[in-house]
Predict the 3D structure of the following.
Amino acid sequence: MSRRVSRWALAVPLALTLAAGLSGCGSSDQAGSTASSPGSSGAGPTTLTVFAAASLTGTFTELGKTFEAAHPGTSVKFNFGSSATLAQQITQGAPADVFAAASPATMKTVTDASLAGTPTTFVRNKLQIAVPAGNPAKVDELKDLTDPKIKVALCAAQVPCGAAAVKALDAAGLKVTPVTYEQDVKATLTKVELGEVDAALVYTTDVLAAGDKVKGIAFPEADKAINDYPIAALSKAPAAELAEQFVELVLSPQGKDVLTKAGFQAP
Amino acid sequence: MTPTTTSTGRGGARRGPGPVGALAGRTPWVLVLPAVLGMAFLLLPLAGLLIKAPWPTLPERLAEPQVLEALRLSLVTATIATLVCLLLGVPLAWLLARVAFPGRRAVRALVTVPLVLPPVVGGVALLLVLGRRGLVGQWLDATFGVTLPFTTAGVVLAEAFVAMPFLVISVEGALRAADLRLEEAAATLGASRWTIFRRVTLPLVAPGVVAGAVLCWARALGEFGATITFAGNFPGRTQTMPLAVYLALETEPEAAIVLSLLLLAVSVIILASLRDKWVTSP
């Protein structure tokens, strides 16, 4: 910058940027914090930290509330994000108690580092073709996506939904050239919601969560690319006991009920 | 490189003597200590990248065609975005600094919005305006058959949107600090406002323009959120280095480090050579 920049020209954006930065810190602190709240009965930690795949946001938030109600005085904090990113955060020492991943591969990163016991598959998720409300490009089967006039968004092959899309398309013997390889399933779905693409391959649960803005079309090849979701209590969990109890809740009939209502399939 | 072509190159000579010299004496530790801490804070993460880099496999990773493609795309789009910013941003900065109009304060604050806005939100905002179903985009599609999302032009737009405030703030600051009397003298000699801008104002604020362009280019080069949201991610067309880094991080953190180092090295080399050329004082 020039040396004598006007005070205000610098101060205003600086202050605003700082404010934005600080609010950003606040939310991430919340996700990573495992400190037990002072004044509790003193029987171990009272905060459970769950790292879960972004596609579990709705269901796990609900299960977290159930858990808090069943264990008065405890609070459940979530860190939702891309499974691969979460796995990396855990291997880098992030203080988490439970990890629920959207693919066995991302869970393997954590188990390979001996940071979790044997994971349990708790749900499965199937791909659907998502189209904007009204289906402007008249897509009705997987083959339609090969039409170059139809704009398609796929998840990047590096993330679970992208890997599943590759598998499904391979199984169908189709080659689709999308206009974009999105970084996660929510970003892919956003492109459909805004009508920027005519179709995308996303999970059934995401289609359901998007409501009226998106229509889902099931296709037979999806059965060849079913995604297993593993869950495990972490071996270095600061709140080990609560972690086991939360995993039990997720695997219980009550947990199954919440998850299947959101479009997940039982394993 | 192109980002500085509008400056005259005479800016450096006007900077006067360097910071030392006349002000010899003991350096106050109150300033040195935080300065060293600040430097360490900025440089340590870089050291982390260098230490963790997979040096043995580095050459083969760099030789992958996708890597060079992403690098080329990054450099080209950041440069074009900087040119767009110069073309629109310098006049905007001039307007804010020299012309009193109602609502100037508000406009000045609004110009910095892209700085505050999380880039992903900026990308969504661009989609809502310039997307296929956006306010303006709808019309562009219907009239000219042009759609901007998922194109290289879309990458340039996203980068320019996020980077322009850096240029505007820098240039406006320089304009406000420049000696108005020189412009007034030119006016009394009969120069038109356009001539004054070209012959007096622009050379006067050239260092500010260069600094702003460099900031702007650097920001555009590192742009991630708005780009992936507005332009998507397709190798060779919209996948810039930061996008490639992000996706590599999902599966191969080592590859991500290599890509980051490459981007860093290239940008440092370019900025350093520009600095030698355009800014003569140390």
